[in-house]
Amino acid sequence: MADLTIRRGEVELATETFGHSSDPVLLLIMGAMASMLWWPEEFCRQLAAQGRFVIRYDNRDTGLSTSYPPGQPPYTLSDMAQDAVAILDGYGIKAADVAGMSLGGFIAQRVALAYPDRVRTLTILSSSPLGIEGLPPFTEAYSAHAATGETVDWTDHADVLDFMMRDVGMIASTAHPHDAGAARLFIERDMDRARSFASATNHFMLENGDGDKRPAAADLRVPLLVIHGTADPIFPIAHGEALANAVSGAKLQRIEGGGHELHPNDWPQITRAIAAHAATA
């Protein structure tokens, strides 16, 4: 494992790599409020063991990357897609296999649409298709939980920890046990590592930054794999099905009972699917 900070203008993006740099590159893009740690280290090592040079990184306003005052994000989703390309440039990589989860799935779709020559294959996990409306909303239970986020004092460690613990419980797999103790240790580590954990709430205020152009998943022209849990309370399985159906030749890998998470019991299935898809390029 090696660390490297990529600079794009005034923005610093913290990255880590796993595996051998001579192997095909897999760039991992995580979701809202989630640092690179939400791609667990052992998960990344499993991907590297299958012949991938894995790069994970902290999006802006997470982890060790550049952060901004909460409520004032001076960047857009389009900027975050350009950040991903800047990381490839920083490593001297012409094209990579790209995987994005949740908000990272939206960013990854934007990368593949705007820079198709930089993306060999695309894997979208627990996300939703760009340009398709009318899909099911959050489950009622998750909507009620998410609404409590407006009352959280994001500068108060205990208040944030309590909310995050409830959140990871809400999005957990229904097929495997939820380890609350391990989740607590992980969340505390993520909070302690961040430059400003409160700044991660900026991700919920981002504009698209596309002007009059509206990116759409149906315009994707790279090999696509969709991985989606059947019990995802944030993006119900219909989102994954719609994304797979929108793109010619796309494949859908269902994770039975999977929530909006990467549960350790599902890592072998998920990593094998990603590696096998990347190998088709």
Name the descriptors:
281 residues, alpha/beta, Rossmann fold, 8 helices, 8 strands, 17% strand, globular
Structure description:
The chain is an alpha/beta fold and 281 residues long. It has one domain (2-278): 3-Layer(aba) Sandwich (Rossmann fold), CATH 3.40.50. 33% of the residues lie in helices and 17% in strands. The protein contains 8 helices and 8 strands. The chain has helices spanning 41-49, 77-90, 103-114, 140-147, 157-170, 180-193, 237-246, 267-278; strands at residues 2-8, 11-18, 25-29, 53-57, 96-101, 119-125, 224-229, 251-255. An 8-stranded mixed sheet has the order 1-2-4-3-5-6-7-8, with helices on both faces. Helix 7 links the parallel strand 7 and strand 8. Helix 5 (157-170) crosses helix 6 (180-193). The radius of gyration is 17 Å and the shape is globular. It starts with a strand and ends with a helix. The model has no long low-confidence stretch (mean pLDDT 97).
Order of helices and strands: EEEHEHEHEHHHEHEH
Count of folded domains: 1
Q: Give a short account of the largest sheet.
A: 8 strands, mixed
The SS-based structural class is alpha/beta
Proportion in β-strands: 15-25%
* N-to-C span: 25 Å
Query: What's the Cα radius of gyration?
Result: 17 Å
**If helices are DSSP runs of H or I spanning 4 or more residues, what is the number of helices?**
8
Question: Secondary-structure map with pairings?
Answer:
Layout: E1 2-8, E2 11-18, E3 25-29, H1 41-49, E4 53-57, H2 77-90, E5 96-101, H3 103-114, E6 119-125, H4 140-147, H5 157-170, H6 180-193, E7 224-229, H7 237-246, E8 251-255, H8 267-278
Parallel strand pairs: 3-4, 3-5, 5-6, 6-7, 7-8
Antiparallel strand pairs: 1-2, 2-4
Helix pairs in contact: 2-3, 5-6
